[in-house]
Structures are given as structure tokens and as C-alpha cells.
Design goal:
172 residues, single chain, 31% helix, alpha+beta, 6 helices
Length: 172
């Protein structure tokens, strides 16, 4: 698996394709009611200082299969928010989301100097909740009825992970 910056037009377009797929964007929130992102929005997002975005690839042939990122990076507070989308669903049983998240979170702590990373998942997004659990995030609260899918409200489950806790894990 490789992690690639979102800096080429073909990667920007691929990420936008994933983020305009309802199966993916229904679990997301990019602020101001934004869930699906156009190629221009992806390009702008990838260039912002408060974003660290990487496309992850399949092991065997470097096919782009998903996007993982740290958003809302606040250097003053040394925090960021982790998120991931597995765009190519045929790779769902191969552990890519866990590995990609692990590496980007490691980059956040080691390269970006973050002290804490948070993450949230909609209460019904069981695959994301499993990844968060395997990464050893700690539950910090519930934002009740904060996420709407098809007109129905769901809770957001919030978690965080400190740099010291991340170093204690071995995911090599």
C-alpha cells in the first residue's frame, strides 16, 4: 500500500468520484452542510494547510482505492480529526482502512507534531467504528441526533487518541 498526496488531476477526480457516491458521503460532514465534494472542492481542500490528505493504493498494483485524512488541523492546539473513505468497495476485506488510518495518524503525530487526534463515526457505521476501536481510540462522548441520513437522525460517536497512546501500539 502506498499513500499518495492528492496533487494530480486524476487523483483529485477519483477522490471526488468517491465523495459524490451516496454510499460514502452519507457518513461524512465537511461543514456547512457539505457532504459530497466536487473536483474543485477536493483540490482546494487538498491545498489547505489544515488538511493532510492521502490516497491509499492496493498492494498489488498501486490502484487508488480510498482517501484518508487529517482535517481541522490546529497547529496552535496540536490537534486534528481523522477520517477515511474506502472508495473501491471490493477491497473491503483486506484491512486497507485500518492500515491507511494507522499510517496517516502516525504521520500526524510524527511529521505534523500533533498531540491528539479525534475521530467520530455515525452510530450505524459499524465498519468505521471497528477501525476506530482497532486503532485504540478512547470514547469521549456522544453527539446525539447530530447526523441526518435520509431524513433520520443518528448519533455521532466521538473518540480521541493521544500521541503517547498511539506509540504504545504495534501495527507494523
Amino acid at each position: 500500500m502506498k499513500l499518495l498526496p492528492v496533487d494530480k488531476p486524476e487523483l483529485v477526480n477519483k477522490v471526488s468520484e468517491w465523495l459524490t457516491d451516496e454510499r460514502n458521503y452519507r457518513w461524512l460532514d465537511f461543514g456547512s452542510g457539505g457532504q459530497a465534494l466536487s473536483p474543485i472542492a477536493v483540490k482546494i481542500m487538498a491545498q489547505r494547510q489544515n488538511q493532510y490528505l492521502r490516497v491509499f493504493t492496493a498492494d498489488e498494483d498501486d490502484t487508488p482505492i480510498g482517501i484518508v485524512g487529517l482535517s481541522n488541523i490546529k497547529q496552535d492546539f496540536k490537534t486534528g480529526t481523522a477520517w477515511i473513505v474506502l472508495g473501491e468497495k471490493r477491497y473491503s476485506t483486506k484491512g486497507y482502512p485500518l492500515r491507511a488510518c494507522w499510517q496517516v495518524i502516525t504521520d500526524g503525530f510524527e511529521k505534523l507534531g500533533l498531540n491528539a487526534v479525534d475521530a467520530w463515526a455515525v452510530s450505524r457505521n459499524f465498519s468505521s467504528l471497528r477501525v476506530i476501536e482497532k486503532l485504540k481510540f478512547k470514547p469521549i462522548g456522544v453527539q446525539r441526533r447530530a447526523h441526518i441520513i435520509n431524513g433520520r437522525p443518528y448519533d455521532r460517536m466521538w473518540f480521541d487518541l493521544l500521541a503517547s497512546e498511539h506509540k504504545e501500539l504495534d501495527h507494523d
